Amino acid sequence: MGKLSFIAGVAAGYVLGAKAGQKRYEQIRERASQVWSSDPVQTRVDTVKEAVKEQAPVLGAKLGDAAKTAGSSALSAGAHSKDRFTGEDLPETIHRGSDGKLHADTSGFGPGGDKLP
Predict the structure, then answer these.
(1) 20 to 30 Å CA-CA from 1: which of 20, 55, 105, 115?
(2) Rg (CA), the chain
(3) Residue 102: which H helix or E strand, with range?
(4) Which pLDDT band holds residue 77 (cuts at 50, 70, 90)?
(5) Is the pLDDT at 20 greater than 90, yes or no?
(6) Angle between helices 39-75 and 2-37 (to 10 degrees)
(7) Of 97, 85, 92, 96, which Cα lies nearest the Cα of 109?
(8) Rounded to whole angstroms, how far apart are CA atoms 91 and 105?
(9) How far, in Å, CA of 38 to CA of 41, rounded?
(10) What pTM does this model have?
């Protein structure tokens, strides 16, 4: 019964929305444009832009410091991290080729060529 009520609600919403159509959409869009262009809103937008311009260098420096700290922590994790990046700690079915890329040995997977239809 709950599914039927939900479907009926969706259908009613679709029909009512379709009736409102393009004309109502244009009315809403025009009103939103008028509000955005109004002096009080644009005054606030300018205030926020100036605050962002003032704080951007400070925030950028803090983010840079945080990134350096995170990078140092990742590098100091030890040999295990190095093994994962160099491929030395890979499963037997995966190896690093002479091109430096990882390659998988798929010969042990699937039904095999002699078992295919």
Answers:
(1) 20
(2) 30
(3) strand 102-104
(4) low
(5) no
(6) 110
(7) 92
(8) 10
(9) 6
(10) 0.37
